[in-house]
Amino acid sequence: MSSVTLEVEVPSTFPADRVFKVFSDFDTIAPKVLPQVFKSIEIVQGNGDVGTIKTFTFGDAVPFTSAKYKVDALDVSNNSYSYSFIEGDNLMGILDSISYHVKVVPSEGGSVFKQTIKYNCKGDEKPAEEFLTKEKELYENTYKAIEAYAAAHPETY
């Protein structure tokens, strides 16, 4: 099975634990700050820990309607989180799954949000470069929107 990997890194002035805390509330924040991308995110099974399954309903700004994802790993002490999209039209008929690993690492003056996305292909067909470029921009813009929300709500984050 072939795959394509995308790396996203976004520096932040926030400390790593604060960034991770904000992203722990992604399901609530994302539909508020980017409703055109994330219409809703709902837990269908579990309590948020490893094994939890969530349903994403996408907004009009993305070419997909819905997807299911599963929480694969969660390590709060190391500010890391892994999950996989396992079902939905975002797999484009050519992917078995899309695996994500998020890690927020401390850096001088803040932290770096690092996200590795692995597109696990069913066969030889892979996502187009243009698609991957747009995906990377979407992930970076999503990060920035979530961070801006946190900056506007310092009492919570």
TrEMBL record:
Xref: CDD domains: Bet_v1-like (cd07816)
GO biological process: abscisic acid-activated signaling pathway; defense response
Domain Bet v I/Major latex protein positions: 1-153
Annotated Pfam families: Bet_v_1
Cellular component terms (Gene Ontology): cytoplasm; nucleus
A GO MF label: protein phosphatase inhibitor activity
Family, as annotated: Belongs to the BetVI family.
Protein name: Bet v I/Major latex protein domain-containing protein
